[in-house]
DNA sequence: ACAAAAGTGTTCAGCGTACACCCATGC
DNA sequence: GCATGGGTGTACGCTGAACACTTTTGT
C-alpha cells in the first residue's frame, strides 16, 4: 500500500472551486476523473486530507498539484456533509474557493487521477460529480458577497489591468451593470489604484490606460478606517 | 459498549456558541465538564457526530439537550482543525452559533457530562477548554457581520420589546453608539416593526412602547427588493 | 416637584445616480 | 474618414449624521 493511501484520513477531504476571469466571463477549473468512483465525470480538484495535515494546507497542496502555483487567494466556503454525497463511504468535504488569473498558469492535466483539465464558463458547465455543483453554487454566492467589501477582484486580473477590464469583471461577478463614469469615479476616489505610464495596445481600438492595485496604500487606508466598497 | 459510544463518529464533532442578551450585555452559555479530557474546565456545548446524522442535526440535538429548545437560529461558523486541538486524538469540529433569548429557556445543568452551566458576559469569560475561545471569537465576528444586513437581532429579544432595548442590543453587539432619533427613524422606516398597544412598565421611569417584529411584512419587503440594514 | 428615561423634526453635507459628448486609435 | 471603444464633469435627490427640547412616569 503506497504512503499516500496509508496516510490519508479516509473521511475528510477538500474540494476547491478555482475561479478565473477570461473571455469576459467567470470560469471554473474542472478535472475529468481517471478513476472510480465517477470515472470520466468532471469534478472539482480535491482530495483526501493526510495525517498531520491542516485542511487549508491540503487545499493548497492540491492547488499546487493542479495549477502549479502557491500563494493564491483561498477562502473557506463551508462543510458539505450530506450522508450519501460520496458513493463509497461517508466523506466530509470542506469547500474552498480560489482566485487566479488563468493566463498566468499552465494546467497540469495528465496524471494518475485525471484524464483532462479545462476551464468552463460558470454558466455553461458540464454535469459535475457528486455534490460538486452545490459547492460551486455556494462558492459563487460567497464570492459575490466578498467582492462588495474586499478588494479581491484584483486577484482575478493580471498585475496590470485597464479600468474597462476591471469594470467588466465586477459586472460579470455581480451580474449587474455599472455606469462607466460613476464606476471610475468611485474606484479612483478610494485611492488604491496607481495609474501607470503605459497603455494596453491589445485592444483593437483606442488603447486603454493601465493601472495596478496599490496594496501598500490599501493597507494604510484600511488602518485609517477606510472601508473598500463597490 | 453503549450505543451512543459505538455509533459516534470519532473524529467529527460540533461545538455551538449560544449567544444571549441580558443585563445589557452579550452572554455566552458555557458548561463545566464532568469528564476527562479537561474535566472541570468550562467549554462550549458540543459533542460527537453520530453515524447517519447531519452535522447541523447534531448541533440541534445537542442544543436541545442543553437548553431544551428546538427551532432556534443556527449558523455555521466554520471548521476548526488544528492538529492538537483535542488532546486525546485528532477531532475536526464544526463551529456554529445560535441565538436565544436567555429568559425564555431553563438550563439543564446536571448530567453525566456536565457539572454546571452558566451564562457569562462575553467580555468576562473564564478560560475555556481547548480551542473554544477561538470558536467564540470567530462566531462573534460572524454575528457582527450578520446583524448589519439580516434582522437576526430580534432572535435575541423577547417577542415584545421596546425600541431602547433593541437599540442597546445593536450597540452592544456592534460595540458602537447610535443616535436615538436616527436609529428609530431608520428602523421604523423599514416597516418591519409593528407597534403594540402596550407599554413596558418594568422600567422605573416613563414606560416605553412595545413592538414586535413583523416577519410576514419583512418577507414581503425582501421579495420587493428591500435590503435590511442598520 | 423633580429626576430619569422616552419620545419627537429639521437641517446640512456627502454620496450615489443619471446623463452626453469628445478623443485616440485600427481598419 | 469612419467605426469602435476609451475617457471625462455636472446637477440632483436621497440618505446618513448632527443636534435639543418636551412628555410621561415613579418617587
Topology:
The structure is a homodimer.
Chain A: H1 3-6, E1 8-22, E2 25-33, E3 42-43, E4 46-50, H2 55-67, E5 73-80, E6 92-99, E7 114-121, H3 132-149, E8 161-162, H4 163-174, H5 180-189, E9 193-200, E10 208-213, H6 215-223
Parallel strand pairs in A: 1-6
Antiparallel strand pairs in A: 1-2, 1-4, 2-3, 2-7, 5-6, 8-10, 9-10
The structure holds a DNA duplex (27 and 27 nucleotides).
How would you characterize the overall build of this protein?
Two copies of one chain form a homodimer. Chain A folds into two domains: 3-149, Alpha-Beta Complex (Nucleoside Triphosphate Pyrophosphohydrolase); 158-223, Winged helix-like DNA-binding domain superfamily/Winged helix DNA-binding domain (Arc Repressor Mutant, subunit A, Orthogonal Bundle), CATH 1.10.10. Chain A is 29% helix and 31% strand. The first copy, chain A, has six helices and ten strands, in the order αββββαβββαβααββα. In chain A, strands 1, 2, 3, 4, 5, 6 and 7 form a seven-stranded mixed beta sheet that branches. In chain A, strands 8-10-9 form a three-stranded antiparallel beta sheet. Chain A is elongated. The N and C termini of chain A lie far apart (52 Å). Chains A and B meet through β1 and β5 of A and β1 and β5 of B. Chain A binds a DNA duplex (27 and 27 nucleotides) through α5.
Structure characteristics:
three-stranded antiparallel beta sheet, about 230 residues, about 30% strand, alpha+beta, Arc Repressor Mutant, subunit A, homodimer, seven-stranded mixed beta sheet, DNA-binding
DSSP helix count of chain A?
6
CATH topology of the largest domain in chain A: Nucleoside Triphosphate Pyrophosphohydrolase
Number of strands of chain A: 10
Please give the most extensive interface between any two protein chains, plus how many residues each contributes: A-B, 15 and 15 residues
User: What is the overall pLDDT average of chain A?
Assistant: 93
Task: Spell out the CATH superfamily of the largest domain in chain A.
Answer: Nucleoside Triphosphate Pyrophosphohydrolase
Secondary-structure-derived class of chain A: alpha+beta
Question: What would the principal axes of the Cα set say about the shape of chain A?
Answer: elongated
Order of helices and strands of chain A: HEEEEHEEEHEHHEEH
Please tell me the CATH architecture of the largest domain in chain A by its name: Alpha-Beta Complex
Largest sheet of chain A: 7 strands, mixed
What does the radius of gyration of chain A come to?
19 Å
Number of separate domains of chain A: 2
User: How much beta of chain A, percentage-wise?
Assistant: 25-35%
Amino acid at each position: 500500500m503506497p504512503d499516500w493511501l496509508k496516510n490519508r484520513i479516509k473521511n475528510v477531504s477538500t474540494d476547491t472551486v478555482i475561479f478565473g476571469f477570461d473571455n469576459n466571463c467567470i470560469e471554473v477549473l474542472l478535472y475529468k476523473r481517471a478513476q472510480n468512483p465517477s470515472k470520466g465525470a468532471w469534478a472539482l480538484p480535491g482530495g483526501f486530507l493526510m495525517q498531520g495535515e491542516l485542511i487549508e494546507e491540503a487545499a493548497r497542496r492540491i492547488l499546487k498539484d493542479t495549477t502549479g502555483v502557491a500563494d493564491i487567494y483561498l477562502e473557506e466556503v463551508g462543510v458539505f456533509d450530506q450522508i450519501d454525497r460520496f458513493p463509497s463511504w461517508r466523506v466530509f468535504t470542506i469547500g474552498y474557493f480560489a482566485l487566479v488569473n488563468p493566463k498566468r498558469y499552465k494546467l497540469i492535466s495528465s496524471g494518475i487521477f485525471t484524464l483532462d483539465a479545462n476551464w468552463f464558463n460558470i454558466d455553461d458547465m458540464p454535469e459535475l460529480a457528486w455534490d460538486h455543483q452545490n459547492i460551486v453554487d455556494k462558492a459563487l454566492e460567497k464570492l459575490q458577497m466578498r467582492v462588495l467589501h474586499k478588494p479581491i477582484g484584483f486577484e482575478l486580473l493580471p498585475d496590470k489591468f485597464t479600468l474597462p477590464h476591471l469594470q467588466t469583471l465586477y459586472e460579470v461577478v455581480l451580474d449587474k451593470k455599472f455606469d462607466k463614469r460613476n464606476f471610475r469615479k468611485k474606484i479612483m476616489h478610494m485611492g488604491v489604484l496607481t495609474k501607470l505610464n503605459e497603455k494596453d495596445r491589445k485592444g483593437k481600438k483606442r488603447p486603454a490606460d493601465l493601472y495596478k492595485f496599490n496594496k501598500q496604500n490599501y493597507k494604510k487606508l484600511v488602518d485609517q478606517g477606510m472601508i473598500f466598497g463597490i
